[in-house]
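hey can u check if this looks right to u? its 353 residues, i copy pasted from the old doc so theres a chance i mangled smth
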Amino acid sequence: MTVITIIVVVEVILQSRRYHVHIICVAHEQPLILDGLAVFFQSRAFLTYDISPRLPQASLYGRQCIDSCDHTVVIVGDSYGTTQNLGVSQMHLSYLSAKAKLKPMLIFIKSQSHDIDTGRQLHDFTRLVEQQVEDVYYYDDNTNIDELLKTAYNNVAAKWNLRPSWVKADDIKEPLIQSNLTQQGSTLETGTPTDVIRKSYNPTDNLISPPTESDDVTDNVTQSINLLEKFDMKYSAQAYEGGNLSDIRMTTSLTWEQVLHALVRMPGAFSSHGLQGCLNRLIAVKADKDIKKKMPNVHAVSRCQIAQDDLNKLQNLLIAANWIQLTASGARTSQELWKLTFYAKKLFEENQQ
């Protein structure tokens, strides 16, 4: 009897848990695969979808859904979608937002016939996604969507190592279940049968009040950083010695404090290229000394550039540490524009004191 009771308790708890998955797509396009997603995730997740850009709340709704979701699914079909005033579709906008938030992505791209002109924007967006995301799967009108979803999701589920973030309060009623959860240290709120706890069920709350810089969550840090900690970065440079030009590749060390001070001097909004320039300037002085120490006859050093892989890793760390975030203007263009967060500015002020 005890064994049976435990099994029932576990089953009830598992049935009560769900992921929040946001579907990035052109609204109401590709109905077959969208319906397939609804069926596949019925017992696994609550789904939200990008909505028509004809609604003024579309961009804010999409951003709030992405902020609260556990992971995303991107559907690239036959259309790029209606472009906004600045020439970017809601699908593209949501993709940039999810990428900036480091949300796990599962991509489904429709294979197009070579004799069909899908348009330059869809072609460029597809190439961008293929270059930036690992988990990409392709389908066409003859694909068994259910089998494709099972294969794709099984492949990425273990890699993502995610835990469902939503728990339905009305399913946690029996004292035995509550006792087991309490012993595990869970903190569940009570509510009406329609309440969903642990995370807000309705991502459209406060649609009328878009977040401002002062609303930045100062403790939304997924990876903390010690300002005095040193880390290594590879860079390339050109050294002039006796009229000869040499390409140099070396490694230098920086502290996070140096990076923070450099970021504070950046403009209000900057691109990834601007971030690279900031870091290049930061290491230029050290590179000049390090190279001349190794090569005493060098009379000039130029074109110091951080290695691209190290730049990408650093940018991801800055996002995870809540030092930089995508700007509203950057989210609405094809170019990512970043700004220093309220948290990073506060950290700098405290460091100065």
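Confidence is low (pLDDT under 50) at residues 1-14, 172-220.
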